[in-house]
From TrEMBL:
The keyword Cytoplasm applies. Residues 109-146 form the RecX second three-helical domain. This is Regulatory protein RecX. The lineage of its organism: Bacteria, Bacillati, Bacillota, Bacilli, Bacillales. InterPro entries: RecX_HTH_1st, RecX_HTH_2nd, RecX_HTH_3rd, Regulatory_RecX, WH-like_DNA-bd_sf. The keyword Translocase does not apply. It is found in: Cytoplasm. Gene3D superfamilies: Winged helix-like DNA-binding domain superfamily/Winged helix DNA-binding domain. GO terms for biological process: regulation of DNA repair. Pfam families: RecX_HTH1, RecX_HTH2, RecX_HTH3. Belongs to the RecX family.
Amino acid sequence: MIEIRAVEKDSKHRSRYLIFADGEEPILSVHEDLLIRHTLFKGQLLTEAQIEEIGSEDDRYRAYAMAIYYLGFKPRTSKQIQQYLQRKLIAEDHINYTIERLEKEHIVDDEQYAMQFAAQRMKSSQKGRRYIQQELLQRGVSKTAALAATSAIDSEMELETALAIASKKWRAIKGEPFECRRKLAAFLIRRGFPVDIIKAAVKSAEENA
């Protein structure tokens, strides 16, 4: 058994404590929540196995806290959180634990994220649903969730967006009418608009030029 000889507040990290036994180096560094949960106070006896388990629990706790902090800036997908924690060199099993917990607590919901992202991008980016779907896939959203989110995009709003940018782009394109139509259609394809909307937008841009 190992006896705790001293407990000191970590001067470098708020809410963390250093646990000492006989040596100069701490045997544990834990968040205050774990300090209280495991009654890690002077005189407490711990086995090697307990020390290892508490250390592992603290690593999981820290990974979770880092994910919560990361989510504080804006919503993220599970994949984005995984990549963030990997950059922070968090162990894979702790990353898996964190993501599972966040999903269970409904703090992270890729389907809801996809719906919100698709609606926002349609309003602000002047991109079509196919482009937005690719953006969602790049963020780690499943194909099913990305398709569901982009399928829910209002077709009238998407058409209005395409009409507006097609009209503006048409004025900047040079060449014969056929060539202008081809160039505009290619531009709208790159923007991710579906074929029916592209046809309507090109026709409208040429007729109203």
